[in-house]
Amino acid sequence: MVILTGNTLTLEEVRRVVFDKEEVSISQESIDRVNKSHEAVQRIVKEKRVIYGINTGFGKFSDVLIDEEHVEELQLNLIRSHACGVGELFPEVVSRTMLLLRANALLKGYSGARLVLIERLLELFKREIHPVVPSQGSLGASGDLAPLSHLALVLVGEGQVFYKGEIKETKEVLSIVGLEPLTLQAKEGLALINGTQAMTSMGVIGYLEAEKLAYQSEMIASLTMEGLRGITDAFDEDIHLARGYSQQVETAKRIREYLAGSQLTTRQGELRVQDAYSLRCIPQVHGATWQALDYVKEKIEIEMNAATDNPLIFDDGEKIISGGNFHGQPIAFAMDFMKIAVAELANISERRIERLVNPQLNDLPAFLSPEPGLQSGAMIMQYCAASLVSENKTLAHPASVDSIPSSANQEDHVSMGTIGSRHAYQIIQNSNKVLAIELICAMEALDYRGIDKMAEQTRNYYMNARKIVPSFKKDRVFSKDIEAISTWLREEKVSSVQS
User: Fold this and answer.
1) How does pLDDT run across 218-237, given as a tens digit for each residue?
2) Which of 63, 229, 314, 447 is most exposed by smallest CB count within 10 Å?
3) Neighbouring C-alpha atoms within 13 Å toward the C-beta of 480
4) Is 52 part of the annotated catalytic residue set?
5) Rg for the chain (alpha carbons), in Å?
6) Please, what CATH class does the domain formed by 203-494 belong to?
7) Where are the alpha helices (DSSP H) in 228-318?
8) What predicted TM-score, i.e. pTM, was given to this entire model?
9) Cα→Cα distances 120→159, 179, 318, 432, Å
10) Which fold has domain 2-195?
11) Of the residues 52, 215, 425, 462, which is catalytic?
């Protein structure tokens, strides 16, 4: 059971409740905070105090006062008008995460929303009724207005949802499960959409996959080390302690453990004095990716527990401040950092693939072909990997350096963090396929070297992967092999190869 407090949610807890369906409950302290915050909003409406978003318009309309009898209409109009998302849909798992993170943020008690609103978000989460949310249309400041408006539509019985593997009209699904649409009260529409939960949820799912891929990349690189008879001296602990980066030290340690007992790896001077950088510098490059991922993890976990709407209510309504916590710059930077870090895992992987297939760089059959010339073997697999890493380079261009004014120049600097999170996710998918290609090629090289000479851990990994993709006997449609291994790498059962 994961207890939501608004302050303590971790990535590991998100993984358990989103993927493993662990139950969620709400802490009593957060319930008390939510109730007090909502009572403050009710007093403001009754006392006719002029507060942004409660009884005023939005954005450039912040100076337009709204009569008390139109407060509920104001909130509904806000949600409908802001639901302008376009393009491909966010993956359903991202939509599911958005429900969880929006509920957690409202439980901080700074937003003025009723408890019933939060309970409905979590009820949808529990019943796996996930809002259909287009992925394009957010500037990443003023919150993820368009994506979160599509989420909010579901609470009022509008829009569409994913339900039991299909996309259905929300009203139909609510009727099936016996839930009535809610009527949004003062500030509740704004509280639902003024937040960074779209970019953060996309970032959460991306990070969890990137972390998995980073561990797998070390094991796959270890198989390549054996396939190319790599020199293990480069992984000696003293080298890495001498530089001082803990992530580099830990990467080298894991690879030493994976390769322990191998009869295929070599020592300095046995075959050659030094390996190419793509082998020799694995701890330095992969370790640097871990440094970036550690940074990303820290920022995501802060943001998951952040109050990111506007205005915020403090001191039981005595202090209400319009600020800018909805601005996505911290997550925008983190997503751009993750893009670059994961793209580099693919970059160095593609260089190892080249060393596995290029007969000028190894003593293996050309392109790992069973009959070089008659059969092309892995030749075009390297082309595919090269294409993917090149695409990653364009996607890795930082979204956060861009901005464009909106709302008649009232909102004149924005983060583009949601674009960054989407591009990061695409880079992760591309990199997964590059590493799948490296694994296929490394296994083929190991067939020539001798499976019986492999280290115990790498051999076990090889045997499991061989259940997915068999050895080359003759040319076949390798696209299917790449997709099969790529899917296998994403599966939870191989989510961690840490020893």
Assistant:
1) 999 999 999 999 999 999 99
2) 63
3) 6
4) yes
5) 26
6) mainly alpha
7) 237-243, 246-258, 277-280, 282-304
8) 0.94
9) 16, 9, 28, 36
10) Fumarase C; Chain B, domain 1 (1.10.275)
11) 52
